[in-house]
Design goal:
Number of helices: 4
Structural class: mainly beta
Number of strands: 39
Shape: globular
Strand order of the largest sheet: 31-28-34-25-35-36-37
Length: about 600
């Protein structure tokens, strides 16, 4: 059944910025705008604060929304140049200048009635005066003045709670609707692993719509391990529900539209992209594939799990797509028992694609990494011109129970000709037999789902060790003989290390396919991957330039941001006096108590 709900809520806009992809207004009047992006692999986060004022501006991370314990930066532009500093709050008094300046100022400008300040810090911090940035929500505070004379903000302040590292836009566009694509009273058999599939029609849309949020509808969390939604080509018209891979039609529906894994939550694409549906492509059939994990072999469970797809007729700038990369899911490769850290590799080599078939570069904004029970780490290395230029994504503490598409923090570009190596690390110390590649929960996968724009026809980009070379390595003449040799081998540490190295050095059959069932093959090799970077808490802020050198003396007193709010609350009239003592600026608060009847 398709469900439709109409919502009428004002939509927030977002500008496309690959380094600062996230945008939030911190106030109700949209006068205070925060943009940010991060790189968890390198361990840094970048902010850009823009406020409609030509005076000083301040921003902070607070434990409870006020000044106490807040990590604060303050900056602005005056007649002498720019000023900027890193502070911490101790109460309802002026913040104190940090002994260690942990924030790096990248730019600061004052134009068109706005002050814009871009700055950077480590996600981790060695400074006891800085607030940690984690995957939990944090309360952000801001304040500003109308001039560069740092003084009490007089109400020009606010706070907003955001999750900086696990941010989802949560936009609700005007004229928002949704429809569900779920199983229909599917009886899960008494099998440990079972894949159920339903081919169904989506609603008919004459004009193209954009899906912007994917919401899991999981009826039995203890049964549903993961699910995938595929788009079928136009020639597939049949609709039915049955066990997956029992009908040749399934193999034609290979364009991934959405993915969900156990532990995942709602996933929303950035506000400049949408997953297309309807329009020129006409009506399409979609294939919902659900992996049921039923280790207790319970009988008679009926399931209606699936996805709710939220969409809008207001089109975004780009169509989004999903590319599946990694190791081909096949039982020709095996992971030995007794291994504490066994590695497998899958290669996505876009140079395989003929130049006549290549499209635009892929702008990757999110990645979902996927293995099964034995998986402990997953890394996706990014290579260009034969050299590794970084990591597309990595998870050094992979948890089978928590799998979700994760925003990268900044958009990363995969150029046509680049390659990706997906490395998975497995722990089989609790197993006594070989673990084979396959669909079952106790079998293994090594995949990375790349969410990108603009959408192309590409669907899969992966590899598998070349079978003849694999059998030669094992001293076998047939696949059955190779299987017997692997299952009967004594797997001690030396044998495991040798097998892993030999398996990695084998020629790899690389395969790229598109939704029109075009395939491109090549023989490649796995490149060496660099060590994972260790994010460090130290950053070296840039020194003052000639334009702002004279302003460095101001660093000791810019912290008048929110001084003595308590005095105002008690009805005090404040006058500020500044005096230099031993090279530092001291603040004196001269005040007179008053009432309705008297003033002194």
């Amino acid at each position: 059944m398709n469900n439709f709900t109409t919502k009428s809520v004002v939509e927030t806009g977002a500008q496309e910025n690959q380094l600062l992809p996230f945008t939030e207004h911190l106030d109700a009047d949209a006068m205070v705008t925060l943009r940010w992006g991060f790189d968890e692999i390198e361990g840094n986060i970048t902010f850009e604060l823009c406020i409609n004022t030509t005076g000083w501006i301040g921003f902070g991370l607070s434990p409870n929304g006020d000044m106490v314990g807040a990590d604060i930066v303050i900056g602005g532009v005056n007649s002498d140049g720019i000023y900027f500093g890193d502070y911490h709050g101790t109460g309802k008094v002026r913040p104190l200048l940090d002994e260690k300046q942990s924030y790096s100022l990248l730019s600061l400008s004052d134009a068109d009635g706005k002050t814009t300040m871009r700055f950077e810090r480590s996600i981790k911090s060695c400074d006891v005066d800085d607030r940690p940035i984690t995957e939990l929500p944090v309360k952000l505070i801001y304040a500003y003045g109308l001039t560069d004379d740092i003084a009490y903000h007089r109400g020009r302040r606010g706070t907003k709670e955001l999750n900086l590292l696990k941010y989802m836009p949560r936009s609700v566009p005007i004229d928002s609707h949704y429809f569900d694509m779920t199983m229909m009273n599917f009886t899960v058999p008494a099998e440990e692993t079972h894949y159920g599939c339903r081919l169904m029609n989506a609603p008919t849309f004459v004009e193209k719509q954009h899906i912007y949020r994917i919401q899991p509808l999981i009826e039995h969390l203890e049964l549903v391990h993961h699910l995938l939604l595929y788009k079928c080509p136009p020639h597939v018209n049949d609709t039915f529900q049955e066990e997956c891979f029992t009908n040749h039609i399934h193999q034609h529906c290979i364009q991934v539209v959405a993915a969900w894994g156990v532990g995942g939550e709602d996933f929303e694409v950035p506000e400049n992209v949408g997953i297309p549906i309807g329009g020129d492509e006409g009506d399409c059939v979609y294939r919902l594939e659900i992996h049921y994990n039923n280790p207790t072999l319970t009988e008679g469970r009926v399931d209606n799990s699936g996805l709710r797809l939220h969409y809008t007729p207001k089109l975004r700038e780009h169509d989004a797509g999903v590319l599946m990369a990694g190791l081909v899911v096949h039982d020709s490769y095996g992971i030995p028992p007794n291994a504490s850290a066994f590695h497998t590799y899958g290669l996505c080599d876009t140079s395989v694609i003929p130049q006549s078939e290549t499209g635009p570069d892929l702008q990757v904004f999110a990645v979902e990494l996927h293995t099964h029970l034995a998986g402990r780490k997953v890394r996706a290395g990014h290579f260009r011109d034969g050299k590794q230029i970084g990591f597309m994504a990595l998870d050094e503490h992979y948890n089978f129970e928590f799998q979700q598409a994760k925003n990268l923090g900044k958009t990363k570009t995969v150029k046509m000709g680049d390659s990706l190596v997906v490395e998975c690390t497995y722990d089989t110390t609790n197993r006594t037999e070989m673990t084979w590649g396959g669909l079952g929960t106790r079998q293994e996968m090594c995949l990375a789902f790349l969410f990108y724009y603009p959408a192309s026809n590409l669907t899969n980009c992966w590899s598998l060790p070349e079978s003849d070379s694999l059998m030669t390595m094992l001293g076998a003449s047939t696949p059955l003989e190779a299987y017997v040799k692997l299952t009967q081998k004594t797997w001690d540490e030396e044998a495991i290390v040798e097998y892993e190295k030999n398996l990695r050095d084998l020629p790899q059959i690389t395969l790229v396919s598109d939704r029109n069932s075009n395939y491109w093959l090549n023989i490649s090799t796995i490149s060496d991957m660099m060590k994972s970077p260790t994010p460090h808490c130290e950053r070296t802020p840039p020194g003052p330039g000639a334009s702002n050198k004279s302003n460095m003396a101001q660093m000791s007193w810019i912290g008048l941001l929110l001084y003595d709010e308590l005095c105002l609350e008690l009805g005090m009239v404040l006058t500020i006096s500044l005096k230099r003592v031993n090279g530092l600026i001291q603040q004196y608060c001269l005040y007179s108590a008053y009432s309705k009847d008297s003033k002194t």
